[in-house]
Amino acid sequence: MESVFSATKRKLLLEIAWEVCNQVGGIYTVIRSKVPAMVEKWDDNYVAVGPYFPQRADAEFEPMIESDETVIGQTVRKMQQMGYGVQYGHWLITGRPRIVLFDITSVSTDQLNAIKGELWKRHQLTTLNVEPLVDQTLIFGEMVRQFLTLLAADHSKRVDFVAHFHEWMASSGLPDLRKDNVKIATIFTTHATMLGRYLAQNEPGFYGKLPFFDWLREARHYGIETQATIERLAAQQSHVFTTVSDVTARECEVFLGRQTDLVLPNGLNITRFAAVHEFQNLHMRFKDKIHEFIMGHFFQSYSFDLEKTLYFFTSGRFEFTNKGYDLTLEALARLNYRMKQADMDMTVVMFMVTKQPFTSIDPEVLHSRALLEEIQETTRAIEKQVGERLFLAAASNPTANTLPDLNSFVDEYWRLRLRRTVQSWKTKKQPPFLTHNLVQEDDMTRFIRQANLVNNESDRVKIVYHPDFIASTNPLFGLDYSQFVRGCHLGVFPSYYEPWGYTPLECVVRGIPTVTSDQSGFGDFIMQIMRDYENRGIYVINRRTQNFTEAADQLADVLFRFVKMSQRDRIQQRNRVESIAEVFDWSNLRAYYDTAHDLALKRRK
Question: Which of 18, 132, 392, 500 could form a disulfide with 521 if both were Cys (CB 3.0 to 4.6 A apart)?
Answer without folding.
Answer: 500
